Amino acid sequence: MADLKSLIKQGEGISLEFKTCRRALNRDIYETICAFLNRHGGTLLLGVNDFGEVTGVDPDCVEQIKKDFVTAINNPQKVNPPCYLSVDDIQIDSQSVLHIFVPESSQVHRCNGRIYDRNEDGDLDITDHTVQVANLYQRKQVTFSENKVYPRIGVKDLRADLIDLCRKITRVNTPDHPWATMDDQQLIQSAQLHQTDPLTGKSGVTLAGILLLGGDQLILSVAPAHRTDLILRKVNIDRYDDRDLVRTNLIDSYDRILAFIHKHLPDPFYLDGIERVSLRDIIFREVASNMLIHREYTNGAPSRLIIEYGQVSTENPNRPHGFGPLNLANFAPFPKNPVIGAFFREIYRADELGSGMRKMMRYGKTYGGADPQLIEGDLFRMIIKVPEFGSQENVTPDVTGEVTRQVPDKYPTSTRQVTPKEAAVLTTARNPSTRTELQKSAGFRDREHFVNTCLNSLLKAGFLEMTIPDKPRSSKQKYRLTDAGKHLLSSMQEA
């Protein structure tokens, strides 16, 4: 019962639904059952309202409600294919609550002839949405799309130089690695990149093999939508400041993602014990491998990595096994492309399943000031906070063009460094100034960009304050220096 109370406190979500159900079954509970079956399963509680309050089922109606439910759920006219679920009567604070656990199904189900899917805490009728229905059937496939066999493509059609490169990488790191003595055909078969289709009996290189070791034209012929879009968007937020459109094999794609990261993100000095480690490389090594290993390559959506001011965001077409933010406390890693993942681990481009993500979470806050966010869905998203050039002690002016000054220990809550644009804002704010005046002094053209990347940062750091704090949106609002801001400005002028 304690576990059920804890579950109720979580509130409705992708795998939890409440129904009041006082004296009779709600009509829409079968739509919820159908949606749970089609997504990833879930728990249905009858006798709990939408606010998580236990209202209970009328004790005189419990047995009839249970009978009506079992009869309907086994009726193919109601839910097809029919499913077999049990109902448990649980007492919570002297109230009857009916608990129904719905497992994920390997089939696509319909309720009253309609197909429902689960999204957040709602049941969506997707019957007339061709793409969503196709994605649903794709999720229910027993086999992984990476194992699709192309009988007309053999080892000779793959890049021999890439195969040899992988052989050398394994030999350097593990001198007695079995790939070292294998020829190309044996290596490809050992890595499960050449298989036999159990339905047709024909053999050939798999989609995974082509994506890993194929030439660019061959890759685009079997996966024309394959691409990874790398974007830097800081100054020109309407378009981009730099871009790399990657449409090549996964090994070179990994290297190009990391090269783009190295080009545009700082790597602050950090000691782990007595050893210097690169937080940037630890975190984005996992980001790069995750984007390539856990992608659904039959989906036409591209992968994206966008470097913005203070953060990096990614999105990947995905075959989800859950929905919403991932919690490492109850996180269970699920291999999306196990063959590609195993190959990446053999050539030291990835860690064991789940361990890389835990490293990213361990170091993410130290690197960027906040824990990374991992959000499961049809598009898998990551949001990683990052430092900016000029916000680190070891970054020199001739490299970044940034001038930094440190706030003395007298103001420990405001200890941080400022950029020249922030310094210009602080100088102007010696006299109470409007947002427009501050923006103009710093040379920002875009209001939103100024507020998000400069003004809010100085307010949060405690260098600026509002003259009318009770009315943040007042037309008469101005901003002025705090004591910490005045001290900082004075120390900068003396330096």
Q: Mind explaining what this structure looks like?
A:
A 7-stranded mixed beta sheet has the order 13-12-16-17-20-19-18. It has a 4-stranded mixed beta sheet with strand order 1-2-5-4. The relative contact order is 0.07. The chain has helices at residues 2-10, 29-38, 62-73, 130-139, 160-173, 184-190, 207-213, 216-222, 250-264, 279-293, 338-346, 355-368, 397-400, 420-428, 435-442, 447-461, 483-494, and strands at 16-19, 42-46, 79-80, 88-92, 95-102, 110-111, 116-119, 122-125, 149-150, 194-196, 203-206, 228-232, 242-246, 271-272, 275-276, 303-308, 311-317, 324-325, 373-376, 379-385, 464-466, 479-481. The protein is an alpha+beta fold and 495 residues long. The radius of gyration is 28 Å and the shape is flat. The chain folds into 4 domains: 2-139, Methyltransferase, Cobalt-precorrin-4 Transmethylase, Domain 2 (2-Layer Sandwich), CATH 3.30.950; 145-222, no CATH class; 228-385, Heat Shock Protein 90 (2-Layer Sandwich); 401-494, Arc Repressor Mutant, subunit A. Helices cover 36% and strands 18% of the residues. α9 (250-264) runs antiparallel to α10 and α14 crosses α15.
Write the layout of secondary structure elements.
Layout: H1 2-10, E1 16-19, H2 29-38, E2 42-46, H3 62-73, E3 79-80, E4 88-92, E5 95-102, E6 110-111, E7 116-119, E8 122-125, H4 130-139, E9 149-150, H5 160-173, H6 184-190, E10 194-196, E11 203-206, H7 207-213, H8 216-222, E12 228-232, E13 242-246, H9 250-264, E14 271-272, E15 275-276, H10 279-293, E16 303-308, E17 311-317, E18 324-325, H11 338-346, H12 355-368, E19 373-376, E20 379-385, H13 397-400, H14 420-428, H15 435-442, H16 447-461, E21 464-466, E22 479-481, H17 483-494
